[in-house]
Amino acid sequence: MELGIGEWAVISVCAILILGYVRGYYYNRQKAEQILAWLQPGLEKLGKVEPGERLAGLATGGRLQVKQAIEPFRRVEAIFILAPRENLIFWLFHHLLGRNDELALKISLRTQPSTEIEVARRGDREFARIVSGGEKKTFTRLSGLPKYEAAYRGKSNADQLKTFLERYGKVVFRLSLRREQQHLFVRAYLPHLQTKPAEAFITSLKALLE
């Protein structure tokens, strides 16, 4: 029985999706190994690195943690999430949104920081809610930032924050340093971040606490 154009089209699409899944799966495995090799030496400067729990759902990536980190950190959890290269349709949508492989750092601090900092891409609703939330002590916004917004309150930390943004403003799309929770939360895109050692990035984050 000869197949029609429609059947061949369906077979071709399925073949492309299957080949794309296999290629994306192995590519992401290689990427995960590269990220671990880059990230672990930086975290080892803070203390003993241990593997964390598996990522939930269909997310591809990994998790590392330092439970007894050195001052001024108490605990560090590093989560990296890879673009969904196994699914060509999801990956295309992910790419069109301008997203890439991501790193999230959840850092609890030993003492309250003297400064609170918020950094986000322009239009971020959470940033607007926090910075314009009618708090007793308002945030001071930094001006002249083209693609993102930044604000701080408390001890003047403008110079350190500007230095950090000059280095990492292109890759960090969310940063939150808060006194009440005593934590530092960071989300950043990995490809450009990996051009320098992970230790350099962590050192720059520590400078924000000085």
Explain this structure.
The chain is of the alpha+beta class and 210 residues long. It has a domain at 1-109. It is built from 6 helices and 9 strands, in the order αβββαββαββαββαα. A 9-stranded antiparallel beta sheet has the order 1-2-3-4-9-8-5-7-6, sandwiched between helices. Strand 6 and strand 7 form a beta hairpin. It is globular, with a radius of gyration of 21 Å.
In short:
Helix content is 39%, strand content 27%. The chain contains six helices and nine strands, in the order H-E-E-E-H-E-E-H-E-E-H-E-E-H-H.
The share of residues in helices is 25-40%
Average pLDDT works out at 83
Order of helices and strands: HEEEHEEHEEHEEHH
Alpha carbon gap, first and last residue: 75 Å
Computed structural class: alpha+beta
Uncertain segments: none
| Continuous helix count | 6
Largest sheet: number of strands, sense, barrel closure: 9 strands, antiparallel
Physical arrangement of strands within the biggest beta sheet: 1-2-3-4-9-8-5-7-6
**Judging from the principal axes of the Cα atoms, what is the shape?**
globular
